[in-house]
Structure formats: structure tokens, C-alpha cells
Amino acid sequence: METILGLCIGIGLSAACSFRVFVPLLVMSMASLMGWFEPMKGFEWLAMPSVCIALGFATLCEITAYYIPWVDHALDTIATPAAMVAGTLTTMAVSSGEMSQFASWAAAIIVGGGTATAVQMSTVAVRGLSTATTGGIANPVVSTGEWISAFLLSILSLIVPVLVVIVVLIMVVWAVRWLRRKKQESISRSTV
């Protein structure tokens, strides 16, 4: 049961990594400093005050950079592999001690990295669609929604992980359907 709970927390944190790479790590660091979360062996560095401060600064820089035109798109090219790595790390940091080291890393890469990559691709598509349809004017709104989602998902992942997994699955299905609908609409407009 502990393994499944750890994977649920990992899925939620990985999805949050796809919105903003540093936010889930910051939330995990703050939670471990307050005693609400104990990272797995090898990830005790999350509980260091200096790491929390560094992650806070990195989070602030990342959130700010997404409000700068053109920089947001440049960050998306870097954020996709970074989200995969961060998703893997966050999942590994909460994985159960019941699994072997190999099984823990395999689960972290597949579940954490896979979730982060899938959700990140949707956020890149939404930003691209926002740029194409509004000329980038709506991108700050998208950015605000992304960092708020990252904070909420990170916090809720530690509090109610199973609910977060359900919400993440619903979000992914909704995003895929929305993107398909937009693609069909653009194809319909171009053929008319």
C-alpha cells in the first residue's frame, strides 16, 4: 500500500513539474523543513534550509521568465527535458523503501518522467495555441494558470495524493480532447 501511495504522490508531483520545474521541489523542501514530509534515503538534501532558499530563488526566476515574451517559448524547449528529469527525481524522492533500488528508479523514470513529459507536451501545445490565436497576448494568463496549478498540485499531492492522480488523469484527457477539437477547427477553417 505504501508503494502505491508513493507512486500517487509521485504522479501528482511529476505533473506539477510539467507546469513549473522547480515548484514541486520547493514545496517538498518546505514540507520537509516543517516536518510534514520525509524524503526517501538519498534525498535528505531537500530538508536543508540552503536548498530551500536556492529552490525558492530558482522558482521565482522561472515564474518571472515565463512572463517575458519570446523567453517563455525558449524556456519551453528547455523545460520539456527538465520536467522529465524533475518528475523522475520527485517520484524517486517519495518512492517506497519496499522496492529495490532498481525497481524504484524504473518506476520513477516510467511513472514520474512519463507523467511529466505527457503533461509538459500539453502545456507546450496550449502555449503554442495561445500564441497562434492571440499573438502571445494571452500567454501571461496561461503562465499564471500554470504556476498556480503547479503550486496547488504540489501541495495537494502531499495531502490527498489519490485525488490528485484522478484530477491529473482528468486534466490529461481534457487537454487531449481540447487540443483535438482545436486542431479539427483549424483544419475546418483552412479547408473552407
TrEMBL record:
Q: Does the UniProt entry include the keyword Metal-binding?
A: no
Q: Which residues cross the membrane?
A: 12-33, 45-68, 102-127, 147-176
**Boundaries of every DUF4126 domain copy:** 7-181
Instruction: For this UniProt record, give its keywords in alphabetical order, as a comma-separated list.
Output: Membrane, Transmembrane, Transmembrane helix
Q: Does the keyword GTP-binding apply?
A: no
The superkingdom listed in its UniProt entry is Bacteria
Recorded protein name is: DUF4126 domain-containing protein
Specify the species: Acinetobacter bouvetii DSM 14964 = CIP 107468
